[in-house]
Write a structure and sequence with these properties.
The chain has helices spanning 68-79, 85-92, 100-107, 162-165, 235-241, 341-355, 406-410, 435-440, and strands spanning 32-41, 44-51, 56-61, 111-126, 129-148, 155-160, 183-188, 196-200, 206-209, 215-223, 228-234, 249-250, 259-264, 272-288, 293-301, 313-315, 320-328, 336-340, 365-368, 372-384, 389-401, 417-423, 426-429, 448-455, 458-461, 465-466, 472-475. It is mainly beta and 476 residues long. The protein folds into 2 domains: 98-124 and 133-363, Thrombin, subunit H (Beta Barrel), CATH 2.40.10; 365-475, PDZ domain (Pdz3 Domain, Roll), CATH 2.30.42. The radius of gyration is 25 Å and the shape is globular. Mean pLDDT is 87; it is low at 1-28.
Length: 476
């Protein structure tokens, strides 16, 4: 998959049923420290729940399995505690054995498969001359739920790859004047179906019936440069199919060797799971999505990916999102790629912001050009024994400053080492040259920005600048 691909796939269904115990309230009261199978009785399994105050309770499971996800749901229901699933695992439960299955099943609540319709025109040469045929073709990929009603607009927002909803072979003149999908539908995991051809529409194109589980999705915006797109649907429509939908949890970081779990639609076999590790946390690959070859900063993973995995989530062992899978090497199955987390969050938050800013002239995603060129020196790997993993760091040197730019107005000088960027009082560290791009896409009009540089052996916080609308640069 050195080039972006899309194929039609179907999805599979799975479910877990379990019996769980009642929990004590959190915080000042006792909490769960461990859950372990302690015996059998009458063919049923007996589980013991151990609490922080030394007490225990027991419960019986009749021919079933208790997962950490079941326990988390019951814990929230019983206590009303505001805690994420991963925090619950790390703070309250010592898991005996492999908890990967529970993590994956929890993530499935946030996963969908996507179908995109495009009008394509094909040509053939025969004895009668050139024959032209136009019809609707349907392609598919994956998606994850990114936000559920956080901004109180009644919508649930999804993220997928741009190339899942864009077709460079689409006939724009017959596809609504664009190469963006004219119709997009999604199916939540566990409520799948497959579109069925249902006659012809008024233009003579094949029309499809997506059934009662198909959820009509609206294209909000996208960036071909980052291979990301945002879709949305009314939350009520999503919950009418499954009231248990959840937005993905976002990881704080990722690192080489970390578990990388991909959930997508490989090879037409439905939504399914593959697992591997992060092989390289920063690699440039080249993709052609819209007829133009571009470089994309990517996570390299050895997690198996296939045609149809595009747009699906990449999760760590705690079930937190670390990327969106989008490409692979057709000659070596152990070399595959994902859009890194910080590009995902920066781009998606940006698109959602400008879709809801009340200004019809702003759409898709924007970044800010600070007016500097950078180079790297003193690159090295630094291991953190307390964290158990390391990171590559480098000195990010300012090689040039554009006259009258934000950096120039702030007082940046050639030779400064860029160490950080402060946005509205919150500082982000700069340890790699690409950090500045990741930070710039989070800036908005009206933000106060300071650059922190190393100069003459000391740290200097440069003058504050306010981002104006003229500083915004549209991302393609």
């Amino acid at each position: 998959m050195s080039r972006a691909k899309k194929v039609i796939v179907a999805a599979l269904c799975a479910a877990t049923v379990a019996v769980v115990p009642a929990f004590a309230a959190c915080s000042s009261q006792s909490y769960v420290t461990n859950i372990a199978k302690s015996g059998t009785e009458g063919g049923n399994d007996i589980y013991t729940v151990y609490y922080s105050d030394g007490s225990t309770t027991k419960f019986t499971v009749p021919n079933s399995t208790v997962t950490a996800s079941d326990l988390y749901d019951e814990y929230i229901a019983e206590t009303g505690d505001d805690i994420t699933y991963s925090e619950f695992l790390s703070q309250f439960i010592t898991v005996n054995g492999d908890n990967t299955a529970s993590t994956i099943n929890y993530c499935l609540q946030s996963c969908l498969k996507i179908y995109s319709e495009f009008v394509e025109t094909s040509y053939s040469i025969g004895f009668g001359g050139i024959t032209q045929v136009s019809d609707v073709n349907v392609y598919t990929g994956g998606a994850v739920i990114y936000d559920v009603d956080t901004i109180s607009d009644g919508y649930t927002y999804l993220v997928t790859n741009y190339h899942v909803i864009y077709d460079n072979n689409a006939d724009a003149s017959r596809n609504g004047g664009t190469k963006i999908a004219r119709e997009i539908y999604g199916y939540l995991y566990g409520s799948e179906s497959t579109p069925v051809a249902a006659g012809r529409d008024s233009d003579g194109y094949t029309q499809y019936d997506y059934g009662s589980y198909g959820i009509a999705l609206e294209y909000v915006g996208g960036s071909v440069e980052n291979d990301l797109a945002v879709l949305r649907a009314k939350t009520a429509d999503m919950k009418a199919v499954n009231e248990n939908i959840k937005a993905v949890e976002l990881a704080d970081t990722y690192y080489v060797g970390e578990t990388a779990i991909a959930i997508g639609n490989p090879e037409g076999n439905g939504i399914s799971v593959t697992q591997g590790i992060i092989s390289t946390e920063n690699e440039l690959i080249t993709l052609n999505i819209d007829g133009n070859w571009r470089s994309y900063r990517s996570l390299r993973i050895d997690t198996p990916l296939y045609s149809g995995n595009s747009g699906g989530g990449l999760f760590n062992s705690a079930g937190k999102l670390i990327g969106i899978t989008n490409a692979g090497n057709t000659e070596d199955q152990n070399i595959n790629y994902a859009v890194p987390l910080e590009i995902v969050t920066g781009t998606v938050d940006n698109i959602i912001y400008y879709a809801n800013d009340g200004d019809d002239s702003t759409n898709n995603a924007y970044t800010v050009d600070l007016g500097v060129t950078l180079s790297s020196s003193n690159s090295k790997y630094v291991y953190d024994a307390s964290a158990g993993y390391g990171q590559v760091s480098e000195d990010v040197r300012i090689d040039s400053v554009v006259s009258a730019s934000i950096a120039a107005n702030a007082g940046a000088k050639v030779g400064d080492i860029l160490r950080g960027v402060i946005i509205n009082g919150e500082e982000s560290e700069v340890t790699r040259t690409f950090n500045l791009d990741d930070i710039a896409i989070t800036m908005r009009e009206g933000d106060s920005v300071n650059l922190v540089v190393e100069r003459d052996g000391g740290l200097v916080t440069l003058s504050s600048c306010t981002i104006s609308s003229s500083d915004l640069v549209s991302l393609k």
